Fold:
Amino acid sequence: MRYEMMLPRQIRAAIEANVPVVLPLGVLEYHGEHMAVGMDTLAVTSALDLLSRETEIVVLPPFYYGAASYAVEPPEGTGSVQVDSSTLHPFARELFTSLLRIGFRNIHAFIHHQTENFATGMPTDLAFKFGARQAIFAFLEKSRGEGWWGDNKMADYYAKQAGGQDPFNWIKIHPLMTRETIGQYPFDHAGEGETSLMLAMCPEAVDMSALDGARWYTASAARASRETGEQGRDLILAHMRSVLDLPQRSG
Structure:
């Protein structure tokens, strides 16, 4: 379900059923001459579109304006949009606070940009992780009062945490590709892996006739294929089903 298309009664039903609420998180960044600047975000939105056809999830409007950086190319004439993380994290805090106030407790964000070392973090995902933590702390203190964690009612906190009921799990940020996925699929920038993903999931974002050899990071894109992209797509969907606690598909 697209959140912007939902009626209030549908929102209330999703809250009652604890349906996963998912934010596609990304950037606008130069991906060579042959691929659209929205690739990182399009990979997430395309995967969620496929997932929403097989199960019930709530998909928030995508956020494209992350910290792309100019590490790949300067922005002039290339299209990269850079929003500093110091601006992102207050936005994330306010967004997540609002979602918590609405009543959602099963909130997720997926990001593909700069996630090869996700445990260490990069500006966009760190900003949203920080904003999520701030939102949860503030919401709990406001709704439960100061000293909420130390109250005797919380004596079973660690037992609940082991069972997955920790309130700090209300909001989770995930990479689109895990370390396990990267071990099975080429992870790159505008090369074989990303180009193949777009050929399989969003072919209108690719023009292979525009591919040139001027940049090292696009050289492997000449090997891209829809078949390779479909392998990546399936790995991504399996990961999404796992972290969203959805049934895995067989075959």
Observations:
- The chain has one domain: 3-185.
